[in-house]
């Protein structure tokens, strides 16, 4: 391959909040704890480490410059572990892991050890507890009784509490249980006390058969995971109602549509997918990990053409695919089982951030058919470009080792079993001054509390400019918005602007679900998207959202009713104390400390 032309490097156009986040969590420090690198040096460090796996000096030098330029211009950023750890000789570069849990004490404890090692390295972990026998079932070898999935869930939560992820990230986990497990009701209420398993998101693995039974008002069998025997029955509709009410109360459980996930499994010969990463967007086989990165799509808005610069977007997608593929080789892993699984399938997940910013700049309300159409076109273009880039890498460097055992065998020679994924983006969106993932704006002015206690005031720069241009900017307006007020109450603001700047809780649940589905149709893995609901939403709204998500082909769903948790990352300041933040860490986009 001919080495690419290296663009001139540039200083990163970072906001004050971005610099604060980088200094607190990402920039290297010296032995005395003082910051020892600049943001530009961070991007150079990461670029050099990821380009180092290229086969020649010429390619390494050229790709170092291209990777650095893409990051420093904030067009593309990899996930946090890559930014934190690349080039340091410590930690993993992947964010998302799934670990197996089998029905033996040895497996439970070895997975607890693996969890500690992964989280020490900076990764988040997902588990399926469905292989565990129900609480109280006999154990022949000890003449005792099984502790059940909920106890193991809580044990792993304690492991996460004890492990500080490099001093930079709190433990993050996903716990999943099949809806036909005998302990399903206990599991869906496992976090109800507000104390247990708070480092976990929990989700039910819902089958097509269960949802069909719920629609028909039928019962369904609970199944012993050891031998498939029946362990009683439940009314499917009542269990669905119970799960919807629990999600209405607290945001848990979410749902993963496990049959939908496995219909898209690229390597079914290697086994069924049973679990996902903590935010649900990465369904993985046991021991797999996946490296994620996101393109700031708002950066490709061409104002003169009133469109996107599609050629530049395609070029950045190809660069990002190569970057993420290189990460697979550059990343150390804490266990040999993980290394083998990762390099066998070479899964990567390229997604987007800044989608809400793009809509606003384009004059398109999030809650509109035009927004759905743009989502379809945008992700369709990204998916096609990512596929083409992976195919080209397959020709240049070889297909992923399990290609002949995959659904691609005899067809497209991809380098990567998966190419695309929509992550919540969290702090990398702050670094890029972009809206998170594909979410609408949470609000026009709010406070963000980071996991380390840092409080960042955030104001929509686009709305602030629109307010100045429209002549309705005032300190009082922004104080009101920061305290939880709604722009929709201000009739002096033109209706077009009120629609364009509608925020997460002002958008109906159906549009949230349809937006997730629009991106899912062009995404290999899954989509992290929260169906944000206003505080006065009903349990029936939650239930309806769950069913529509399944109907439209989503791989899972998370709902969050505003105020249903006492802690949340994005919050409005109390009206009588605008300088204070909420005391929370839970993210309404993923339910956990932000990644």
Keywords:
595 residues, alpha/beta, 10-stranded mixed β-sheet, 3-stranded antiparallel β-sheet, 20 helices, 39% helix, 15% strand, globular, disordered C terminus
Tally of individual helices: 20
Mean pLDDT: 91
Report the uncertain regions. Answer: 575-595
Q: Any idea what the shape is? A: globular
What is the CA-CA span between the terminal residues?
A: 35 Å
Portion in helices: 25-40%
The percentage of residues in β strands lies in 5-15%
**CA-atom Rg in angstroms:** 23 Å
Total strands: 21
Coarse structural class: alpha/beta
Largest sheet entry: 10 strands, mixed
Provide a descriptive summary of the structure in words.
The structure is a single chain. This protein has 595 residues and is of the alpha/beta class. It is built from 20 helices and 21 strands. Strands 1, 2, 3, 6, 7, 10, 13, 16, 19 and 20 form a ten-stranded mixed sheet that branches. Helix 8 (208-216) crosses helix 9 and helix 11 (310-330) crosses helix 14. It starts with 15 loop residues before the first helix and ends in a 24-residue tail after the last strand.
Task: Provide the fold topology.
Blueprint: H1 16-26, H2 39-51, H3 57-72, E1 76-78, H4 80-85, E2 96-99, H5 105-121, E3 124-128, E4 138-139, E5 144-145, H6 149-162, E6 173-178, H7 184-188, E7 200-206, H8 208-216, E8 219-223, E9 230-235, H9 236-250, E10 254-257, H10 258-263, E11 275-276, E12 283-284, E13 289-296, E14 301-302, E15 307-308, H11 310-330, H12 336-345, E16 348-353, H13 355-362, H14 369-397, H15 427-431, E17 445-449, E18 455-459, H16 461-470, H17 475-482, H18 495-500, H19 509-520, E19 530-533, H20 539-551, E20 556-561, E21 570-571
Parallel strand pairs: 2-3, 3-6, 6-7, 7-10, 13-16, 19-20
Antiparallel strand pairs: 1-13, 2-13, 4-5, 8-9, 10-20, 11-12, 14-15, 17-18, 17-21
Helix pairs in contact: 2-3, 5-6, 8-9, 9-20, 11-14, 14-19, 19-20
């Amino acid at each position: 391959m001919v080495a690419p032309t290296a663009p001139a490097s540039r200083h990163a156009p970072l906001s004050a909040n971005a610099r604060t986040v980088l200094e607190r969590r990402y920039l290297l420090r010296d032995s005395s704890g003082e910051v020892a690198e600049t943001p530009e040096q961070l991007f150079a460090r990461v670029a050099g480490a990821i380009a180092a796996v290229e086969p020649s000096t010429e390619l390494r030098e050229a790709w170092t410059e291209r990777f650095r330029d893409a990051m420093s211009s904030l067009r593309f950023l990899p996930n946090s572990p890559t930014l934190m750890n690349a080039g340091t000789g410590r930690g993993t570069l992947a964010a998302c892991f799934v670990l197996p849990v089998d029905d033996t004490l040895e497996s439970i404890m070895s997975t607890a050890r693996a969890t500690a090692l992964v989280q020490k390295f900076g990764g988040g972990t997902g588990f399926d507890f469905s292989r565990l026998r129900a609480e109280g079932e006999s154990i022949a070898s000890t003449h005792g009784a099984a502790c059940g999935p909920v106890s193991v869930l809580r044990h792993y939560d304690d492991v996460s509490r004890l492990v500080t992820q490099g001093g930079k990230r709190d433990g993050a986990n996903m716990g999943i249980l099949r809806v036909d497990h005998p302990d399903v009701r206990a599991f869906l209420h496992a976090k109800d006390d507000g104390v247990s398993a708070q480092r976990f998101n929990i989700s039910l693995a819902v089958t097509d058969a269960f949802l069909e039974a719920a629609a028909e008002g039928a019962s369904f069998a609970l199944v012993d995971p050891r031998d498939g025997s029946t362990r009683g029955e439940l009314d499917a509709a009542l269990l669905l109602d119970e799960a919807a009410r629990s999600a209405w109360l607290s945001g848990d459980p979410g749902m993963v549509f496990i049959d939908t996930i496995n219909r898209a499994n690229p390597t079914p010969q290697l086994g069924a997918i049973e679990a996902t990463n903590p935010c649900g967007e990465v369904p993985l086989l046991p021991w797999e990990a996946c490296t994620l990165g996101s393109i700031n799509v708002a950066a490709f808005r061409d104002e003169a053409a009133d469109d996107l610069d599609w050629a530049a977007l395609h070029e950045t997608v190809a660069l990002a695919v190569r970057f993420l593929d290189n990460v697979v080789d550059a990343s150390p892993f804490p266990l040999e089982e993980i290394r083998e699984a990762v390099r066998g399938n070479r899964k990567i997940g390229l997604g987007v951030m800044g989608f809400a910013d793009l809509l606003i700049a384009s004059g398109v309300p999030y809650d509109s058919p035009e927004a759905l159409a743009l989502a379809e076109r945008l992700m369709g273009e990204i998916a096609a470009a990512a596929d083409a880039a992976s195919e080209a890498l397959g020709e240049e460097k070889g297909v992923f080792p399990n290609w002949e055992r995959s659904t691609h065998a005899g067809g497209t020679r991809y380098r990567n079993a998966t190419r695309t994924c929509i992550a919540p983006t969290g702090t990398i969106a702050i670094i890029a001054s972009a809206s998170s993932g594909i979410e609408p704006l949470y609000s026009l002015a709010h406070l963000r509390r980071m996991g380390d206690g840092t409080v960042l005031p955030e104001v929509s720069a686009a709305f602030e400019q629109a307010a100045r241009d429209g002549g309705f900017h005032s300190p009082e307006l922004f104080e009101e918005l920061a305290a939880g007020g709604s722009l929709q109450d201000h009739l002096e603001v033109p209706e077009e602007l009120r629609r364009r700047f509608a925020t997460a809780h002002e958008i109906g649940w159906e549009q949230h679900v349809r937006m997730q589905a629009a991106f899912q149709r062009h995404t290999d893995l899954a989509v992290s998207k929260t169906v944000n609901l206003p505080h006065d939403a009903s349990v029936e709204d939650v239930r309806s959202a769950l069913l529509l998500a399944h109907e439209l082909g989503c791989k899972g769903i998370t709902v969050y009713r505003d105020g249903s948790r006492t802690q949340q990352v994005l919050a409005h300041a109390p009206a009588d104390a605008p300088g204070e933040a909420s005391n929370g860490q839970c993210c309404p986009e993923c339910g956990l400390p932000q990644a």
